[in-house]
TrEMBL record:
The keyword Cytoplasm does not apply. The chain crosses the membrane at residues 40-61, 108-127, 170-190, 196-219. This is DUF6535 domain-containing protein. It comes from the Eukaryota. It holds the Pfam family DUF6535. It comes from Mycena rosella (Pink bonnet).
Amino acid sequence: MRDERGEETSENAIVWNVYTDEAQKADAQMTDGWSRSIDVLLVFTGLFSAVLTTFIIQSYALMLPDPTDTTNALLMQLLGQQFNASDPALVPLNRPQSSPRQVHWVNGLWFSALACSLSTALISMLAKQWLQSYLPNVSGSPRHRARQRQARYMHLQAWHVPGIINALPLLLHVALLLFFAGLVVLLWSVDLAITLVTWVIVAFAYILYFASIALPLFYAECPYQHPITDQLRMWIFPDRSVPSPPPIFAYSRRRRPSEEPAKIIYDARISIATFEDVVDATALAWLFNKSTDHEVVSTALQAIAGLPRDFSALRILRDAGALPLIEQGFQSCFHKDTTVDLKWHLLDPELAELYCRAWMKLTRGTAEQWPFDIVQPLWMLQDLNTHPDTAAIASCAVALSSFDSHMSQWELVAYLARCSAGELQLSQTTQCCILDSISECFVRWEMPVAVIEDTATRAVPVLLRMLHLTEDLPNSKVRSAAALALYIITSGGAIDLGLYMSEDKRRGEYCELMIEALSVIVEGPARFGVQDALLDIVGVELARLASPIVAQSERFPQRLRTVARSSLSKLYADGRIAQGIVPDSILADVLHLLFPPAYLSESQQSIFVTTLVETLETSSHPDITNWAVRLLEVLLSKCSLAVSQAFVENNGINAVVRAARAGAVDSRRLQIDSLRTMCAFITSTTNEYNAVGTSHPALDEQFDVLLESEFFDTLTSIITSRRWWLFEVSGHWLPAIVELCRIRPGAKVWPNVWKTFKEFAERNVGEDGYSETLAHLDVIRRVLGEEPQA
């Protein structure tokens, strides 16, 4: 039984259950061993302290003044006075006695030994309590239980609990040494022979003791094992022991931004590790280093394949020796026939795939190459047609090991092309792996420009199709990976890939990456092999990005907004963004973003005006209408004859007039914008007419269409229906109407227009613009030659 592809380290992954089982066995063995050792120490400490106390009672008495000594001295003095002191019978016997200095040394050594012994008993009792609190009952998911146990284990190591427990016998051994030293000092002045025998026995015992500690340091198979030996080995020979991570206190529970300068090549080994990732990494490292069960080790190594892309503690796994074990595990999935043809035979393709993904996970962003001695099995796995996911993963490993060959990268693009065409079914994990491999290849490539451009021509259409297929899956990891790959390819690979290992980072900057990439494609679609159908996909994708740009304008820098506006203008003018192609709300946001329009040539302006008029005629969405009218106002202001002709020929006058009528019900602002747009058109055409100086057929036709339209009826009805700002009338509307009246004074509309504006001026006597309005009306009256009559 195996986990789903890509779920090897998920909440309920198998590896965490295996870890919990192995940890329970190891913890039980460890704590039971320590507990039994402490029990023995406590028993020995009690016996030793009792014996030592007996000796101390006798030696301590030697330090106190003895009343009988004074009595004996006085008696001897009295006898000496009564008898002849020269009599040998009366001379006291000289027995060997310890000097006061020796007595103090003996008591000092034995009291120190007693203190060490009792301290050993105290610390042993504390250690028993520590061991009881080390094994609490933890509930939750398998990964949560595994993390809790590994965190306790790491804290146990960080606070040096094993070292303290292992040092307890050493403290008792020091107490014994102090006792023997005191014994030798006590006997030194009493009997030299006994002293020498005792000293020889003690010296021999402690020579054997220190030898039992030293020999295992140099001979690993030596059976003279001692608790302190392992600690000494790590101190003296750190290169021979399994590397351990830095103390747990060195890691933060929150992610911290890198303090190192940005690097173009991402190296997973130098990332700053987070607390959770350190716990997971040390748990896996503990599992494949401590366990002797091949299945357990294999499970731990396979789980590395499921680590997230932004896993920050890969260095711990590498330093713990995971990479050589993974390569050995991969090799074990094959059998090499050495009898006849020396061929490799595949035994377990799914397990080989797991080892491949684990290898790529650990070597991502590094200069690590696939081992040469197992290249042939990797190629064999790459050609496995019956397991497409396995073959694709093997192709990724080949591509990441051969940056000097473009064929392996093209193979990855071919996999995505077949997948997007429906010819091949690949899991989401495999697709993401392929996309990430393509991104890294482009970042690290040093190939000729022609090869890079050819690869971009192959890859960009495929990536666009994948984005189109996942457009209804905004949270898809494939979509964010495809967007990043598209950006890297179109930008030439100038990116710090390490900044985009996090899925949150990719999704957070999805809009920025896509705007940059799609804008480059719009500027030169032929360069990337993008044609009509794919350019439509580009248009739809870029249009979708208009909404966040409009809604979160402060998030996007002005340069990016300008780039988006330029690309959207081209796509909109080409008809690739229109009603029916994108939703109305998105189209409204596109038009909002295009205001004011980017710089356009005269031919582009004509096409743009034509498209805007078509949008006005086909859409009833109020926001679309509002922004289309505003854009037309800007484009028709001081426009050329070709632009005004495009506006008239596509029925733009009637479209804007209908918008003005709709504004009478829906929006006062729409009415103003519609009238301004028409006045901008009139101003441009009259200026063009005046510049020509003579009658022009195209201009005459435009004037005829305007005068025959319902514009003036709509204008007069708007003026009489609402109260308008007089300066708007005199500053924007009347100047254009006056110029048209001068060119076409015989039109039937002028009497009614003059009367309507005259009545409007009389309702606003004294307001700003009143005198200018009267001046314009006087011009119309003089042009008409008499007082106009409606």
